[in-house]
Every structure is written in C-alpha cells, then in structure tokens.
C-alpha cells in the first residue's frame, strides 16, 4: 500500500541513528522487517481514525541530556526508581537502595539476562512497525526480574523523561519477568518537554500464580507523539492488572496485547483526558487462549475542544477456552460539539461455554444531574466540573500508590475547572 508519506525520510532518518552492539541478531531481524515499509495511513483499517501525517516533519536521534527529576519523585518510591533521560539510563537520578535482594532491577546494558528473553514475548504474533523501530534503535531500557515466590513490598518506579530542543526520537524499552508465585507493583511514567516522538515497547511475562499490578501514566509534552506497544503473557493462575492514564501528547496510541493461560486473570483499565486538537487512540487485544480465564476492561475518555478519542478493543476466545469470563466497556463523555469519539468493542468467540459481554456509550453530561446540582445551590460551572470529575474518579480511586493517586486527582480536577478541560499543562 502506498503511504501518504511516500518519499518522506522519516524511517530512513531514524534508522541512520546510533547502532549499539547489544542484541545484534534481534536488531537485524527488526531492520529486515522494516525494509521497504511505509508509515500506515488512514486507508489501513487499524489506523483509519489516526492520521500520522503530523509525523512528516522528521525526527533525529535524541542526544544525551540532563534534567531535574525532583518534581517527578514519589515519596513511597524514593529508593526503588530507575530514571531514563532521552532513552539513556540516568544513574545519578536513579536510586534502587530499597529494592530487596534477589530482584534484578537494572538498565538493560547492565543485565545480561535480557539477551535471552528480549523480543520473545508474543512470539508468533505480528510485530508492528513502531515496535520494530524500537527494537532496531533502543539504546537502553529497564529490566525487572522477580524470582519465585518473592513478594516485593514497595512499588518500583520507572521514570522516562524526554528533553527536546529540536524534534528528536526516543525508544524506551521495558522487560518485566515474574517467576512462579512472585508479586510486584510497578509504576511506569512518561514525561517530557519539547517536540519529540516517543516509541516505548513493554514486554511482560507473568508466570504461574504470579501477580503484577502495573500503573502506566502518560504525561508527555503537548507537542509530543507517543506510540507505545505492550505485550504480556500471563501464565496459569497468574494475574496482570493494568491501568493506563493518558493526559499529554499531541497524538498518542496505546497497543496492549495480552495472552491469558488457563485460569489467568487480567484487568485493562484506561482513562484519557483530551482537549484542543489532541488525538488519543487505544487498540487493545485480549487473547483467551486456554480455559477458565477472566478479563475485565473499562476504558473511559473525556473529550473537549476539537479533540478525538479512538477505542478499538478486541477479545478473542480460542476454541477450547471454555469457562471464559470476559467483560469490556467503553464509556465516553463529550464536552463540546466539535469533540469526537470513535469506539469499536469486538468479541470473537470460538468456544460455547463462556460469559462474555461488551458495550460502548458516547454522550454528554446528563441535564437532569446538572439541574439537580444547581437546584441545590451549585452554580452551572461547578456542577459541570463536579460531574466531569466524577466520571473519571472511579478509574483513579483504586490507584494503590497514595501520592500518585493524589497528584493525578489534582491534575484531573485542574483540567475540569472553569467549564472546560483547559489547556494542557
């Protein structure tokens, strides 16, 4: 298919960047898959609502940079953080002194174990263009390996920061492996300033009976593009609970793909707050590959201005995956006449003893609820703000890290004041 950007040098420019020597076979395979490929266009079904023409300006490899991380630190995790700036580990900003013995928690350049696992999660499934681009050009990343039956008491904090004085590209990489019976809570945050392209790839393997709780917070620059891929494999009786919160970026896209073994359990919740001309796109895929697994997905979007939200959630129940319980909801709130939501929940079922449902709603604030609050003495703006915050609150309530929960509540409240979501902060 001919790209609308045919002739642009975007991919060529990025592939001419640095070539670190680690994992050469993996990189070479990714570059071979990239050869001759073009950016997807709105003629491609998976990208029909998300136009990548905005990327046509081109991006250079990100140079080394230093930033002040004080404003990004969370008190519960002062001794469990790894910081990456412009795709490189920042040792002076990182501190892993509170990580228990036995946990491997290092930058990839210091962890040889990653060589044997990196790129293997989701083998047999197609790799997207931006996933391959990350594989071909990432310079460092985070490795987390938790041994059998170890329950890590404190959350781990991964902080990725981009500082761009001119348009640059960064490729954050994360590999998480929990062995049988292990338990971990992980907070992954993305921040930045300036114009840049961020293409994170996260690979997760949760073994039998292990539990991973994963908070993902995207607060990129208003000029940024954030295109992320996540692949997770959840073993027998394992649990993977993810919450993705999207507040920043000019254009963002989340692509979580989760495979569930027998009796596994997954939660994929999400919240996006959009204003101006922002675009936020989520394409999720939950694969119930074996019997008795459960999954729950709640995705919410609050859309103001001329912003656009896209949700395409697919649940696949394989033949023989009896006893599957899969629930999916897409709920969307429009705050302006120009705001737009395109939502498409999907079920594909090849088993006959299942409990599956999906649904989607797109609407505005309830006039009766607004009237009720105003009849109790609240002015129109405050009533509107309260209902808007209330729409988002249930996704935030269960964030286990108290300081993160408070800061995100404050962010949502600030964005819902003055009768609109306001400008991006």
Question: Can you characterise this structure?
Answer:
The structure is a single chain. With 425 residues, this protein is α/β, with parallel strands linked by helices. The chain has two domains: 10-261, no CATH class; 366-425, no CATH class. The protein contains seven helices and 22 strands. It has helices spanning 10-15, 24-34, 114-117, 129-137, 367-375, 380-397, 402-415; strands at residues 60-61, 81-85, 88-89, 104-107, 142-146, 156-163, 168-170, 173-178, 183-193, 196-198, 201-206, 211-219, 225-234, 239-246, 251-260, 265-274, 279-288, 294-303, 308-317, 324-334, 340-349, 354-363. Strands 1, 4, 5, 7, 8, 10, 11, 13, 15, 17, 19 and 21 form a twelve-stranded mixed beta sheet that branches. It has a ten-stranded mixed beta sheet with strand order 3-2-6-9-12-14-16-18-20-22, covered by helices on one side. A hairpin with a 2-residue loop joins strand 2 and strand 3 (88-89). Helix 6 runs antiparallel to helix 7 (402-415). The radius of gyration is 21 Å and the shape is globular. Mean pLDDT is 89; it is low at 1-11 and 418-425.
Percent in helix = 10-25%
How much is the average pLDDT?
89
| Tally of domains | 2
Task: Write down the overall geometry.
Answer: globular
- Spans where pLDDT lies below 50 across 5 or more residues: 1-11, 418-425
How far do the termini sit from each other?
A: 38 Å
Give the SSE order as H and E letters. Answer: HHEEEEHHEEEEEEEEEEEEEEEEEEHHH
* Oligomer kind: single chain
Percentage of residues in strands:
35-45%
Q: Report the radius of gyration as a whole number of Å.
A: 21 Å
Coarse structural class:
alpha/beta
Number of strands: 22
Major sheet attributes? 12 strands, mixed
């Amino acid at each position: 298919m001919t790209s609308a950007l045919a002739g642009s040098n975007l991919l060529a420019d990025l592939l001419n960047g640095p070539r670190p020597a680690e994992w050469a076979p993996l990189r070479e395979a990714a570059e071979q898959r990239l050869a001759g490929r073009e950016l997807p266009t709105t003629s491609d079904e998976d990208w029909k609502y998300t136009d990548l023409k905005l990327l046509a300006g081109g991006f250079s490899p990100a140079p080394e940079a230093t930033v002040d991380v004080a404003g990004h630190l969370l008190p519960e995790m002062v001794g469990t953080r790894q910081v990456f700036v412009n795709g490189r580990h920042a040792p002076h900003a990182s501190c892993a002194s509170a990580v228990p013995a036995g946990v491997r928690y290092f930058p990839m350049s210091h962890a040889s174990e990653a060589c044997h696992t990196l790129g293997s999660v989701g083998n047999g499934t197609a790799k997207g263009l931006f996933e391959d681009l990350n594989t071909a050009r990432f310079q460092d990343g985070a490795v987390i390996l938790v041994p059998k039956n170890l329950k890590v008491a404190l959350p781990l904090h991964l902080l990725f920061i981009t500082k761009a004085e001119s348009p640059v590209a960064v490729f954050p990489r994360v590999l998480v492996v929990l062995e049988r019976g292990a338990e971990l809570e992980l907070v992954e945050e993305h921040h930045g300033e300036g114009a840049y392209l961020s293409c994170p790839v996260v690979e997760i393997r949760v073994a039998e009976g292990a539990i991973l709780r994963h908070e993902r917070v995207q607060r990129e620059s208003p000029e940024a593009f954030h295109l992320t891929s996540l692949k997770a494999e959840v073993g027998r009786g394992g649990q993977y609970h993810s919450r993705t919160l999207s507040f920043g970026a000019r254009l963002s896209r989340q692509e979580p793909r989760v495979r569930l073994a027998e009796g596994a359990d997954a939660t994929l919740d999400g919240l996006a707050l959009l204003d101006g001309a922002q675009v936020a796109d989520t394409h999720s895929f939950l694969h119930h590959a074996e019997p008795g697994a459960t999954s729950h997905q709640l995705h919410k979007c609050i859309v103001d201005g001329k912003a656009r939200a896209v949700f395409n959630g697919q649940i696949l129940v394989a033949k023989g995956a009896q006893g599957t319980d899969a629930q999916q909801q897409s709920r969307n709130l429009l705050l302006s006449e120009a705001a737009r939501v395109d939502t498409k929940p999907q079920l594909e079922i090849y088993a006959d003893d299942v409990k599956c449902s999906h649904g989607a709603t797109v609407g505005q604030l309830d006039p009766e609820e607004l009237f009720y609050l105003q009849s109790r003495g609240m002015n129109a703006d405050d009533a509107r703000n309260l209902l808007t915050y209330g729409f988002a609150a249930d996704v935030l309530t269960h964030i286990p890290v108290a300081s993160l929960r408070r800061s995100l509540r404050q962010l949502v409240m600030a964005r819902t004041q003055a009768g609109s979501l306001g400008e991006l902060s």
